[in-house]
Amino acid sequence: MPTxxxxxxxxxxxxxxQENDRRPYGRTRTVTAExxxxxxxxxxxxxxxxxxxxxxxxxxxxxxxxxxxxxVFARLLTLFDEQPDVFDERLRHMLFWRFKWVANALVALxxxxxxxxxxxxxxxxxxxxxxGLALQPSYAQAYRLAAHVxxxxxxAYELWAGRxxxxxxxxxxxxxxxxxxxxxxxxxxxxxxxxxxxxxxxxESCQEEPARSVSYALLPLLRVGRxxxxxxxxxxxxxxxxxNPSMSGEVGRHLEFCALTGNEARxxxxxxxxxxLFDEVDSPLDVLGFLTGVEVLLQRVEALGHGELPAAGYxxxxxxxxxxxxxVRGRADDLAARFDARNGTTAHTDRRRxxxxxxxxxxxxxxxxxxxxxxxxxPAAAPTAARTTAAVPESLPELIVRARExxxxxxxxxxxxxxRLRTLAAAPGYAHPDDPAVGPLxxxxxxxxxxxxxxxxxxxxxxxxAALYEEAAGLYDEAGAPGHAALARACALLPAGGLPGEHxxxxxxxxxxxxxxxxxVRLHEETPGLAPYQEARLLRxxxxxxxxxxxxxxxxxxxxxxxxxxxxxxxxxxxxxIAGQASGAQLLRASTYAVAGDLPAAITEIDALLDRLKxxxxxxxxxxxxxxxxxxxxxxxxxxAAHADLTEGLRLAADWPSHAGGIAxxxxxxxxASMRLGRPDEALRHxxxxxxxxxxxxxxxxxxxxxxxxxxxxxxxxxVEDCIALLDSLLAEPDIAAGEVxxxxxxxxxxxxxxxxxxxxxxxxxxxxxxxxxxxxxxWDDDPASHAMIAAETAVLLAESGEFGRAxxxxxxxxxxxxxxxxxxxxxxxxxxLARLQAQHQGxxxxxxxxALLADAGRVADEARAAGYExxxxxxDSALAYEHGRVNAYARExxxxxxxxxxxLTLLGEPGADQEHAGEWAECVRLAAVVEGLxxxxxxxxxxxxxxxxxxxxxxxxxxxxxxxxxxxARLRDEG
Length: 976
What we know:
The chain is mostly helical. It has 48 helices and two strands. The chain has a two-stranded antiparallel sheet with strand order 1-2. Residues 380-386 have low confidence and may be disordered.
């Protein structure tokens, strides 16, 4: 099926070729190039065919299809020989340049005899000599062949590297890489890295560089101890080559880097992201490099005891690490043997073995903000604890009895017992013990359902939790355990009554909780024969229901009922010596004081509780008590005390890893405390840890939201590549990739990524992401404000890329959405910035369009003024006047510009103590003085303007704002 309309004339052909040239390399571009080459055959003029064939060869070369590239080049060479006049200087240059492409393509095919490779190099040399071209490129290819074959390269290297570069030499960056690889082959890491410096520092680059050099330099950098640079280059370099068939070897080296730095889990994640390379790479040499890197990773994962983990591999079946490694090893061994047989050496087998025999260079190098180990990606990772956890009983009757005892106590070790019982009970052929101490099977089934319900409630899956509790209650009735049945029904009431509900207001939620409390009281009163621990739990649920009502309503009248229920619970728990419930009562009382706004009373209550816990336990209540104390300290604006409490809580929580939700909350609160203490990097670590814990316990939406905050913080800190790597990792999560996560949340993650790409100056990738988001958000009829925001940001990015027509279209979309849900400030900022960029790029030619944009910004400002809107940033009217001045200055309409700037100064008013306002005022004065003094050549009034501004700013202490003014004044005096 054709991918593009069939060109009817040469103009349409050239336009189609240009459009195809903008596509990324891959099958779509290649198939289109094939169609266009076929279409070019219809025209009598040969030049369009030459252009089409050149585009086709490029698509094959960078689409990793080396078998087809020489065939296309042979056709081009025939055309050149038959009609040399068709090839102007540019086309002739391209033709001779691509002799090298063919040489590289032939080397990559083991079925091409070595004699044929040498014959091609002879052909290239003869053609260059006949055309009067210098031979340095020919010697470069001879060296590369020697290096590939594994011959002594010293002479070939000197014959190439000692010659002067020509216009047909590989670019400086590519040649630097080849020279560095020569030194690397001689085991001289330091010299190789010195050679690579211009490329690794970004001073030299091309289409393949620095991504190619980076992939080779990673391990040498580690060996010489430059780990920070290796980490940074891995992030930037991997992003440049991922999923790219023509850079599969580079991807393989990044996988190897992960394997040798303790980042095996990240390696598996990157392997999954590049699964397409197993099927889309047609170059045997590239396949060999990729598969060897894959095998290094899989070999390491299997050596660490995780051979049964799932791994992404060849399409058509599900792979484990061990299974994929065996498949990859066989294929790569065969390829290496084929190359060695062709070349008459053992070079490729030897190089492959050297990579596979490398020992890890570092035990652990934190590559990304989302640091995970293989245990974290295992389907059922067991948490590790700092304390010695009691062993789970081996005897089934003992295990059941122990699980129930621990559950009655509220002990965290019950989690491991129930997990073990779930596995045993679900196994085929499970035989329930015939033991009166254990009871019937239906009782155990009820216990397991109740445990499952509790876990669902922790993940805020309230409907499911309530249904499971009800089912458990029925089974308890069947088992003759009415107390347990009552407790299960009570637990079902609370999730249902406390269910937030998307469209439920606070008043309705409070009413539902009031009803839930009344039902709990009735259930309590109507259930005789409750054991003390069961009655204590019912009292706890009653108090919790009223506590949730207070938290929902924020009604002071709801405080007293909570405290009354807490008093009942505390008295009962103390009388029956139920330490866990007594502690819980005091914690509820402290929480009630905190919600009611009496933070000092809450602190007093918590201090008393901490003393009690330290003396009498239970110890597992200490972390959450310290967590609450830390949150209250945050409310009291004592970030240092909060940080200390939360840190201690986190330390103690390590003893109770089954409470993952509480630990995640501790990390989240520590992130807030760290930010208040001015420690953003520490905050970032806590945010990412909190998010990963939430993800592991199944609270995926909470986890993604926390990760989104972490990504934004990393971007604010200037850690652009960290931000991009984090978001790439999240967006590759299976449920996100499968479209199972809320589309708005995913859009927020993608928007953050687009902003990070923009900040990282990857305008092409950022523009593509923004444009896609703008198109998707256009259909959000329920949220036009978000579409306005995304379309506005898209417009600015398009303008930065010089695509002013598309930028105007995006701005119009933003304006249309703004009509439905106003975004005054954002739209004004967008339109002013578009005007500035267009005037800056196009000068007088772009003035009319720029002024039209400013007219739209003026209408937005008028609407904002009429609506009584106050901007959070710059005043919209003064900012608009300033932009009129700047736009007209770019267009050389200097008198108009000066008038606009004077208007902006009038609107701004005199500077005061506010530094931001003073800075804006000073900048307006500076630009007015530039226009007046330099462009209109009226230095005297410009200097008077500056002197007056300095005299106003200096007494106010705005010395920093005066510096640009005094510098400009000095220039005006010098030039005057």
